[in-house]
Design goal:
Layout lengths: L8 E4 L21 E7 L2 E6 L9 E2 L12 E4 L6 E2 L21 E10 L9 E7 L11 E5 L15 E4 L13 E7 L18 H8 L5 E8 L13 E7 L4 H11 L1 E2 L8 E8 L8 H10 L4 E7 L13 H7 L1 H9 L3 E6 L3 H15 L4 H10 L3 E5 L1
Parallel strand pairs: 6-14, 13-15, 13-17, 15-16, 17-18
Antiparallel strand pairs: 1-5, 2-3, 2-4, 7-8, 7-12, 8-11, 9-10, 9-12
Helix pairs in contact: 4-6
């Protein structure tokens, strides 16, 4: 759905190499804008430009959607995929726990950038860490981060390791294999009675990362995790990705590997279908990147959004990611029957609603969800990592 002569593609570069004037800049791209459509039968519809729109639809203000890049620069849509150091493809098994809690690696913060708008429900930062090529990882893995200082619950001991899914491919955002990117939501506690933040109860690690300055030392463990490793045996496979909030991190890595990097041993020709649930349009993460893939690879990438505070589901309630899944349930079940992989990443509270929806829809379509789920797990098509 490439529409409009001013279409642009975003290409990630190291923050120090980007023109400061480009940071947090709104670029002119006419496709993949989100609109708050009118309600049809009680359902608020979400459109992308190029779709057929009613004349009375109104766009969200552009600055709320196409903003807050992370050191991005413009490039033409004809850009070729980026060459990467292929020695990172030689490993036959994923790296696991190369650096332990008692013997971690000390990397350096390269950049920290806020990637949500002013009306987002919380602050989320994109953090690039320079590991010098010493903490290699695969897409779908996590780093452990140990914030400086003592554990307040265990004086004399380091802070607890916090795991963060890596939001870049094994080559990093600078494509040299020496960095890793994290997508971190700042954890704060707001007193329900006063409505004020309580600094004593804030998340130590997330606040350390979001407040860090370039050059800050960061203590890393890992990498860890095998549940969300991207299966690459079949480059024509279907991958259905479901995320809430910062659960988008591993999928950003998948998609960059599929669509942005020139990797001879992985020429993706299948379908990647992303479902992202956030509170509002200002809370969308990496939206421009995903839109660029939608523009360039319309037959290989689908992108559906659930905005709980700006959209209504078919019953008139808030639109959650499970409602969007229900909307496409027949198609999704058909893809799963044909061998598609489905992934879930985000807050653990997302899963009960998704499971209930899948079970109800399955029963409506005349089959047993528990049996279907058991088969998906047996076939290694079902991948869940929630926190």
């Amino acid at each position: 759905m490439a529409h409009g002569i001013s279409l642009q593609t975003v290409v990630k570069v190291p923050s120090h190499a980007a023109d400061p004037a480009l940071s947090n800049k709104t670029f002119n791209r006419r496709s993949c804008k989100v609109t708050a459509g009118p309600q049809f039968n009680g359902e608020a519809r979400l459109f992308f430009s190029g779709d057929s729109l009613p004349a009375f639809s109104t766009f969200f203000p552009r600055q709320r959607i196409q903003r807050y890049g992370t050191g991005v620069v413009k490039a033409s849509t004809a850009v070729t995929k980026i060459k990467v150091p292929l020695e990172l493809e030689n490993a036959k098994e994923p790296p696991l726990n190369l650096w332990k809690n008692k013997a971690p690696y000390k990397g350096v913060i390269k950049s920290v950038e806020r990637i949500v708008g002013p009306n987002a429900t919380g602050e989320t930062c994109h953090i690039v860490i320079d590991h010098g090529g010493n903490v290699p990882y695969w897409e779908g893995q996590s780093y452990g981060i140990i914030a400086p200082g003592e554990n307040p619950k265990k004086p004399g001991t380091p802070n607890t390791v916090r795991l963060y899914s890596i939001a870049s491919t094994r080559y990093g955002d600078s494509f040299d294999g020496k960095t890793a990117s994290l997508c971190v939501r700042r954890a704060v506690y707001v007193d329900p009675e006063t409505g004020k933040e309580d600094p004593a109860k804030k998340g130590v690690c997330s606040n350390f990362l979001c407040d860090a300055q370039p050059g800050t030392e960061v203590v890393i463990t890992g990498p860890s995790g095998k549940v969300l490793l991207l299966p690459e045996q079949d480059p024509n496979a279907v991958h259905i990705m479901v995320a809430t909030g910062t659960g988008i991190a591993p999928y950003r890595a998948y998609l960059r590997r599929m669509f942005m990097e020139d990797v001879p041993n992985y020429k993706f020709g299948g379908l990647a279908w992303l479902f992202l649930g956030v509170a509002n349009s200002d809370s969308l993460l990496y939206h421009d990147e995903f839109c660029s893939y939608k523009d360039q690879y319309p037959n290989n990438f689908r992108y559906d959004i659930a905005l709980s505070r700006e959209q209504k589901n078919k019953k008139g309630g808030k639109m959650y990611v499970q409602d969007k899944i229900e909307e496409y349930s027949s198609e999704l079940f058909d893809l799963l029957d044909k061998g598609a992989h489905i992934y879930f990443c985000g807050l653990k509270g997302m899963m009960p609603g998704i499971q209930d929806t899948l079970k109800r829809v399955a029963e409506e379509q005349g089959f047993n969800w528990e049996e279907k789920l058991s088969q998906l797990k047996k076939n290694k098509q079902w991948h869940v990592e929630v926190y």
